[in-house]
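ZP: hey, is the fe (ii) ion complex queued? I don't see it on the tracker
AM: it wasn't, my bad. submitting now with these inputs:
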Amino acid sequence: MAYYRQVGEVPQKRHTQFRDPDGHLYYEELMGEEGFSSDSSLLYHRGVPSAIVASEVWELPDQSRTPNHPLKPRHLRLHDLETGTDPVTDRRLVLGNNDVRIGYVVTGAEPSPLYRNAIGDECVYVESGTGTVETVFGVLAYRAGDYVVVPRATTHRWVPAEPSRLYAIEANSHVAPPKRYLSKHGQLLEHAPYCERDLHGPTQVHLADGPDVTDVEVLVKHRTSAGIVGTRMTYATHPFDVVGWDGCLYPYTFNIDDYMPITGKIHQPPPVHQVFEGWNFVICNFLPRKVDYHPLAVPVPYYHSNVDSDEVMFYVGGDYEARKGSGIGIGSISLHPGGHAHGPQPSAIEASLGAEAFEESAVMVDTFAPLDLGEAGIAAEDPAYAWSWAGRVLP
Ligand SMILES: [Fe+2]
């Protein structure tokens, strides 16, 4: 996120003395990506950001992964899943590989613990619900249709105002707008389907209740040679003690209503629907739009064999034209793996001819390494889907 922002108080020159009204120095912290060689922000704390008094194991929920073997397209009904209600600790693993993991949770209205993901950025799609995300940078409001992008190692907590369905895309890398949408200095270009006005970062700092709060637990998800693990760190003072910050690294939200779909005379390929990219995966959204206007256009996609990727569609609104007749509905995921062609149910092709607009909404994650099924993916599977193109009833 190479888009400069300043919130709260910061000194005129970086790395210089900056004191509170009583004359105490604030503690300056640089949060920076790729060593000191990429986007960063400078945060000014009341307390020492490295002062911990305890570190214990936090047992993560089941992170096991089962290979997609024998190879099949899959249909997973996320709305059939029972989850606990914590926005962070009750996420159930649906799909994952060594680059990205997709978890799902239906929250209650209680805040999550303080948390940070030290593995990579999180891009949490809000399927439904409202609330806020409190972070060391300030507070973000969230609503249905938002992507909440939280940079790696950002201490935060989710505070739902009501039960919320969260689709958590957890990267092992950073999540950012596609490079082809950016100028050489990082501004979103004219041909991009959204611009900086659509990205909503914190507008004011968020200080914890009273500066004297002590011994505050933060859950940290991180990696070891043994895989993904959790640690509960206890801080001497509250991490929400930042009086000001500035820079180009911070959390933000982006709502799918602010994405301006790119359309064409004939069918446009999925990259025109891309919204973000991470290492070895992309995120796209298919949104209500006018469709192809050639007189002989076929508005639904042609069959395609994505030889280098697994494709995950999460159906979040409307009636997805190409999947009509497959059993897929709102809250469904389809996994179309590399090595096997996929496309519309045959009846959907004729049915789409002459359509002028689609009312569908879906969020897509395309990965460049095969995805395994998490325990929730196995629990939510509709086993009939793989055979739905053949038009036969099979076991
Ligand atoms: Fe596809």
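AM: back. Residues 207 and 240 are 5 Å apart (CA to CA).
ZP: great, adding it to the tracker
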